[in-house]
Amino acid sequence: MSRVVTHELIHAFDHCRAHVHWFTDVRHLACSEIRAASLSGDCSLVNEIFRLHFGLKQHHQTCVRDRAVLSILAVRNISREEAQKAVDDVFESCFNDREPFGRIPHTKIYAQYAHRDFQNRHRYYSNI
């Protein structure tokens, strides 16, 4: 349940922060789906093992791409090729955008580190 809520809260964060045009720009949707799949835990190794989809090399990136394409296809009436192209167009910048966590919270420990970083964020920006 927490993964689903986190996934949807990332969409809410994107909506507020980036003014996403959900229904007119498929690349905006693709970016939010990439971020949600990456940051919510959808692509954790444990989840992928249960799905029988796992690998060792760039497992997380491959999973994020696949989950983003599936999510787009679930809500938009477009071809798989169009969805894949939208994901490919924005993947690098959106995959590397880890706000509001600052890191990919793969485990509870990483989530605690992300929370700690958030609480101390003023220390990093006070000298700018």
TrEMBL record:
Alphabetical UniProt keywords? Hydrolase, Metal-binding, Metalloprotease, Protease
Hydrolase in keyword set: yes
Name the enzyme's class. hydrolase
Q: Name one GO biological process term.
A: proteolysis
State which Enzyme Commission number(s) the record gives: 3.4.24.-
Q: Which GO terms describe its molecular function?
A: peptidase activity
Q: Do the record's keywords include Metal-binding?
A: yes
The record's family statement is: Belongs to the peptidase M76 family.
Protein name according to UniProt: Mitochondrial inner membrane protease ATP23
